[in-house]
Amino acid sequence: MDALILIAFAVTAVVMVAAFALAARRLLGLRFGTVRTLLGAALAVLLVGPVSQALVGPVVGNQAGITPLWFIILAFACSLLASMVFLAIAEALVPTGSIPSPLEAVAGIRRRAGRSRRYLRITRILIRHGLGPYLRGRDPDLGAPSSRLRLARSLRERSTRAGSRS
Question: Which residues cross the membrane (predicted)?
Fold first, then answer.
């Protein structure tokens, strides 16, 4: 019997979340991401109970009567409004599409890793051919025009050799 009540509760919660999500999207007239919409709807579902209790007031002893339908509708409307405020603020702070999807993030990491490997190869070639001090900017001879010319020729020759070997 307890399992049946738990299943009924879960199904009711899922239906309420879906209804709140659909209502918020329709009322705002905007498309939101699925995760954001579900978070807003879950917020609305979590607020329905406390809002309705705040509207009706505390139930004391055997005074538990039937809550007027008007209070229930008002509690749902307040919860839906809170959900829509959440969605509007979330959209303003982090617009839909500004955070990459997990697949895009993985592809971006792969691209960055490929570029880093290429830069590392170039740096190794430069260091192997004696141009390491120039990468750090610690060569005292760069003040003279002849040493800059010698550096430029050396860099061109090394880059040409490195390009023909790869």
Answer: 39-57, 69-90
